[in-house]
Structure formats: C-alpha cells, structure tokens
Design brief:
CATH architecture of the largest domain: Roll
Distance between the termini: 13 Å
Shape: globular
Strand order of the largest sheet: 1-2-3-4-6-7-8-17
Length: 278
C-alpha cells in the first residue's frame, strides 16, 4: 500500500503535523486501514478512493481507532490530490458528512483549504468540566472566563479549556492513560487547550490520547470547532482567526479559519502542506 507522508499546516517548508495519505482505486478493509495507520504511526492517516459520482470517499484512522473527521489529514489529502490531479476543489464523502478540500500548488508547498462539517457547541456539564480540569491539574483561577469550558464540534467532538496564561498552556501535562479513558468514555476526538493572545490570534494544544497519541501538533477539526464556538459566543473575531499550534512540541504549525456569520455553518480552515521524505 503506497502511503504518502505530508505535513499539514506547515510553517512554509518546515513544521506542520505529519499525516499519512493513501489514494486507492477502492478503499481497503477497515482492518487493513487500521493496521496501516498503526504502522505509519502518525496521529492520522487518510484513505481515499474515487466514487462513480466523481466524489472521493474518505475514512480516517489513528493508530488505535477510526475517527469521523481529521482536519490536518484532510489538508494533506487536498495537497496529494492537487499534486496527482491538478489544482482544484475536491468533493469528499466522510462517514457522517460531505465536505470539500481545495489544493493549489505553490512551488515547494501546496496551499490547501477545507470546508468543515457544520459546527455546534454546548456548555460542558459540571462533571465533565471537573474531570477535564483535574486531568490537567487546572484550577478555576487558571481559566479564561470569556471562553467557558464547553463541548465543541466541527466534524468531531472536543472539550475546550481556555487558559489565561500562555505559560500555563506551555506547561501542559497529563496522565496519558487517564486521558485516554476520559476521552474515549466521552467520545472525544481531542481536548483543546487554548490561550487567546488577541481577539484574532490563539495558541492551542491538543491532547489526543483517545487515538493513541499524546499530543497533536496541528488539528484542523479542533480549529474548526473552536472557530464555531467563538461565533456562538459572539467573540470579536472579525470574521477570521489565526491559530498557532505545535510550537511547544518543536513542530510549529499555522492554521487560519474563516468564520461566516451564519450560526452552525461550515468553517473554512486553511494552511500550507509540505511533502515529507518517503
């Protein structure tokens, strides 16, 4: 099985979050895809096959589980499709949604943008808030009250914790097995820890224990969900936000999200992607 390795949401020709991409005539079995994702070892691998109606059927696998949607692997897929089929917008059919990804070649990198599934958000229950805070050893004084703890969705489910301090974000640590149990038990793709440097500039970290990964260096699905939540909060985003992720891991990643005004509508998440050595 030919697996392309592409770092999505790169900082030009460095950084980004590595994803595997498999473009096949037909999707392999779920067992084969899971085994391949585990062998590749990246946080996600995207598998795509063209369908009779001209769309692309896509499934995403982490090393230990299938996930319904993965933003950085979608960006990597958009880059791969642009390299194989030319610049364009590619319609994708996921397990529970239909979206698009655009890929355009720009020298040594590819600019790519996805349109997320619809977004939604809801206040986290007291029990979930307490469990999430305990996992990261956070107190109420650590939290930014402007962005309350919430369940957010943009194709996958996440819990968001907003921190007052950039230093507190940099110091993030958690027990991996406890995180895995919490995320898997609540059906969460990741936890989103975020610090608002400015109304349109955010720093994030994304523990992904449910998928067998301690932390993701760039998370497009979580960025879409966060952008949708900020819209629900009437946050002064001005129509777009920039997200810096992965810097505390030494894998600087840059994500941009355009936020249309309609509640629940799709978020456009964009960045660059670079092909990694085989």
């Amino acid at each position: 099985m030919n697996v392309l390795k592409i770092a999505a949401f790169s900082d030009g020709e460095t950084g980004g979050n590595p994803a595997g991409v498999v473009i096949a005539h037909a999707l392999p079995s779920a067992a084969q895809m899971q085994a391949t994702a585990a062998e590749v070892g990246f946080s996600e691998t995207a598998f795509a096959a063209r369908t009779d109606d001209g769309r692309w059927r896509v499934r995403y696998f982490a090393p230990q589980s299938e996930v319904p949607f993965c933003g950085h692997a979608t960006i990597a897929l958009g880059a791969a499709l642009a390299m194989q089929h030319g610049d364009g917008v590619f319609p994708l059919t996921l397990n529970h949604a239909q979206i698009t990804v655009e890929g355009r070649r720009e020298g040594g990198v590819v600019a790519a943008a996805l349109q997320s599934p619809p977004t939604r958000s809801a206040a986290a229950s007291p029990d979930m808030s307490a469990a999430a805070m305990a996992l990261f050893d956070l107190s109420p004084d650590d939290l930014d009250p402007r962005i309350p703890v919430a369940l957010i969705h943009g194709g996958a489910d996440h819990v968001v914790l907003a921190l007052k301090s950039r230093a507190r974000l940099a110091a993030m640590a958690y027990d991996f097995e406890a995180g895995r149990k919490l995320m898997a038990g609540a059906g969460l793709a990741t936890m989103v820890l975020v610090h608002a440097e400015a109304p349109r500039l955010f720093h994030t970290r994304n523990p992904f224990a449910s998928g067998g990964v301690y932390e993701d260096p760039a998370t497009g699905a979580a960025t879409a969900a966060l952008a949708g939540y900020l819209r629900d909060l009437a946050w002064p985003h001005g129509g777009a936000i920039d997200v810096v992720q992965g810097e505390d891991m030494g894998m600087l990643s840059k994500l941009h999200a355009d936020i249309p005004p309609a509640p629940g509508s799709s978020i456009r998440v964009s960045g660059t992607a670079r092909v990694m050595p085989a």
